[in-house]
Amino acid sequence: MTEGISQPDQPETLEGGSKDLFSKFDDIIQMREGLLASGIEDPFNLVMEKVLSPTRAICNGRDTILLGTYNYMGMTFDPDVIDAGKQALADFGTGTTGSRVLNGTYQGHRECEEALKEFYAMDHAMVFSTGYLANLGIISTIAGKGDYIILDIDSHASIWDGCAMGNAEVVPFKHNDVEAMEKRLRRLPEDAGKLVILEGVYSMLGDVAPLKEMVAVAKKYGAMVLVDEAHSMGFIGENGRGVVEDAGVIDDVDFIIGTFSKSVGTVGGFCVSNHPKFEILRLVCRPYVFTASLPPSVVATAETSIRKLMHGHNKRAHLWENSKRLHKGLTQMGFELGTKEPQSAIVAVIMPDLEKGAMMWEALLKEGLYVNLARPPATPANMTLLRCSLCAEHSDEEVGTILGMFERAGKATGILGQTSDQSEGS
Amino acid sequence: MDRAEVDSKIRTLIEPFNKKGVELKDETTFAGDLEFDSLTVMDFVAEIEDEFDIIITMNQQADIENYGQLVDAVNKLQD
């Protein structure tokens, strides 16, 4: 699911009402006004005036620890990465002003794709201008009319939008439910083209998909498999290739989609694959063709970062320690978390309701901690969540500080007392 | 199974989802009258799919707004 905060991942159809085309947004305008009328700082209008490091920024005038940026490996201020970007900016200019298939493929784009092929040990890599465009492009292009897409109901907005943009029949199944997935695959016509879409880590609760079982089932029914590893690249798996590597199924997966805007630390998206005909997608994939390519400085920083991530074993180990420590500390305080055990670098704290969640978010911000507030309808089961994403650059001391902030804010808002009362009662 | 049998089966399946006990007519809408949100729709559709051993794709769901249309669609799909 998405980092999108005010709308569901699955596209909605809004009905028109009066002549004002904006009247269809009245409900959300009202909900927003209601939240702000309670005097709270707008959770969706935060400005970072200065960024000090991957883990620190001045937010709304306050020195703040960042715990909601998906900057998992802390590459945004890596000196080698910054140097590569500066050099490319000087040598190749500020932008390509063109499509990848016309004047927008520079040496740097090729080198970035070479780095991805090495990182994943795969034959082909295609770099898109964002991760969103990578899902939009690959899904809408390869699954056509008469084909079937079988996907997890908690899929990210970019996956849903890829489905909406294409012409395939869309069949969702219950989140991480292998049996529900198999039932649906079994009922589809045997000779139809099928694409199963899964994510390694689901970003709302930070839970991991049972890819070993799911990929085996998909293959049993002759489906191609696409796995979005946006939230695991660089961190999960021995070489940081994601949950597919950790689960030992990377060779059975047809397409891996990823992003440069999380562990890689810049912006952009990609798809890697061993499909022998993969390269044709460069000519037929509209979100690849009909948009400008990434600036040279961006692909240069991405390439350098990806190559450094190949050797990021120590950082990965420290990030796991951070995630485990935060998860354990918050559990011991009495917070309810999205997963029983830490499964990724995301720790989701479940709030009793939106009002309490917004209060807690603001209390944390005033303590000097930024986390993501996620609320219905963007969340599974209409939960309100405070999502924390850890960084390999969070020091042991910072994690300790973060835990102290959570404890004070939890008590001040009454959430800690309340949560433990509830768990005693149930 | 004929249309009447499909209708009666779906009536049984919808009961746990029809929390307000809204009277079911062919023109009863899921979003408006029954106030189904997307999560309820998914669970309800999964129940029907399992019961009739069919698939109702999201593309087909988009054309089903009321109860009568659902019964018609399931009746057609089970053939």
Describe the structure.
The complex is a heterodimer of chains A (about 425) and B (about 80). Chain A is an alpha/beta fold. Chain A has helices at about 25-35, 80-90, 105-120, 130-140, 155-165, 180-185, 210-220, 245, 280-285, 285-290, 295-310, 315-335, 355-365, 395-410, 415-425; strands at about 50-55, 55-60, 60-65, 125-130, 150, 170-175, 195-200, 200, 205-210, 225-230, 255-260, 270-275, 335, 345-350, 370, 370-375, 385-390. Chain A has two domains: about 40-75 and about 310-415, Aspartate Aminotransferase, domain 1 (Alpha-Beta Complex); about 80-310, Aspartate Aminotransferase, domain 2. Chain A is globular, with a radius of gyration of 22 Å. The model of chain A is unreliable at about 420-425 (pLDDT under 50). Chain B is globular, with a radius of gyration of 11 Å. Chain B is mostly helical and about 80 residues long. Helix content of chain B is about 55%, strand content about 0%. In chain B, helix 1 (about 5-15) packs across helix 4 (about 65-75). Chain B is built from four helices and no strands. The interface of A and B includes residues 148 and 187 of A.
Element-by-element helix/strand order of chain B? HHHH
Largest sheet of chain B: none
Low-pLDDT ranges of chain A: 419-426
DSSP helix fraction of chain B? 40-55%
Count of individual domains of chain B: 1
CATH class of the largest domain in chain A: Alpha Beta
Strand order, main sheet of chain A: write it out: 4-12-11-10-7-5-6
Beginning-to-end CA distance, first to last residue of chain B: 9 Å
Largest sheet of chain A: 7 strands, mixed
Shape by Cα distribution of chain B: globular
- As residue ranges, the low-confidence spans of chain B are none
Number of DSSP helices of chain A? 15
How does the overall form of chain A come out from the CA principal axes? Answer: globular
What kind of assembly state do the chains in view correspond to? heterodimer
Strand content of chain A: 15-25%
Quickly give the structural class of chain A: alpha/beta
Pfam families (chain B): PP-binding (PF00550)
Domain Carrier (chain B): 1-78
Protein name (chain B): Acyl carrier protein
Organism (chain B): Pontixanthobacter luteolus
